[in-house]
TrEMBL record:
It comes from Klebsiella pneumoniae subsp. ozaenae. This is D-arabinitol dehydrogenase. Residues 1-181 form the Mannitol dehydrogenase N-terminal domain. Keywords: Oxidoreductase. GO terms for biological process: D-glucuronate catabolic process. Pfam families: Mannitol_dh. Its EC number is 1.1.1.-. The keyword Glycoprotein does not apply. Coiled coil: none annotated.
Amino acid sequence: MVQALAAQGGRYVLETVSPEGEREYEEITSIQKLLPWQAGLQPLINEGANPQTKVIAFTVTEGGYYLNTRHRLETSNPDLQADLQGECKTIYGTLARILEKRMADNAGPLTLLNCDNVRHNGERFHDGMVEFLQLTGKQAVIDWMAANTTCPNTMVDRITPRPAADLPARIKAQTGIDDKAPVMGGDLYPVGSGEQLPRCPPESGGGRRGDGGVGHPV
């Protein structure tokens, strides 16, 4: 999928389906840069620490926060244990490196935008992130995070199923675009944030709709 999207210059077509079965098509052109996975995640860390990056939005599913029923970190999880030893297999290990680099580079304030459908998602992520930093002895990063980041609660609810096998053919017939990385979704998706975000319009870049990404203001 990443290779196909890269070959298309980050452009893809979104098919929106209404409850009545009506279909609309829109070519999405907001992605400015793709960062394929690589060990160590250094390109992602560099992009997250770029002073032009003002918003980091992420979706890792509810299980990706490794929280127990008391909203504390499940420190027995192997991936989380690895990150507590300095790796970056989880959202916490990765963002810890980004925050450390932003602090060292004086890269400015940042919004950490949780887009998972989890109750009090911003608070849950924030508390998990702070606990992770406490467990790794990074009080300076905690202090910097308190002064320079926001973690708003959000509500994002949109059905985005796996693309149907015949989706590329429908898009080709309706738009003339030969899309190898299409997306389909429902047309109702309430999105809300509990805090004001930095100016970062849709054209500014970042992840595909429903995915994580970083946003640069224009």
